[in-house]
Protein: Mismatch-specific DNA-glycosylase
Organism: Paenibacillus donghaensis
Amino acid sequence: MEEVPDHLDHGLQIVFVGFNPSLLSGELGHHYANLRNNFWRILHQSGLTPRLYEAAEDGELLKLGYGFTNIVSRPTRGAEDITREEYNEGRELLRGKLEQYRPEITCFVGKGVYTEFSRRKQADWGFQESSDPVVDGVKEFVAPSSSGLVRMPMPRIVGIYRELSDYIREHMPLS
């Protein structure tokens, strides 16, 4: 199965980082393609996007200043299928991507994605207050997973993403 291509560029406001693509995303070649995944609805409801996008339009979000990648590129049924070796390799590859492209903010879509990447034992929702970010100069934001399996109420999830939207509007309006 093909890897889902990254959507990265210099000058991005946010790069969204997931665990890895779902099998359906791998088949279709687009991020967050599973209809049970709430990612696109969350972005719209939180104010991060002006309209509801579809997974097939993931590359279009570069125009909004948003990029996409994963800590592991291999599509799997679930994150539990990712091997320790894949995480170790993915961690270094992701660090290299973030150092190369230097987005303003890295949004980790799930606490587990952030703790795997940062090697920190825990994280709070929202901006991480660490004086030692993994990539110097790149703000770290931890948001809930958008998986349909997440038990957190949707209004709470959207509210956390809205913090990111509010920050963008206040500190980094698109020119």
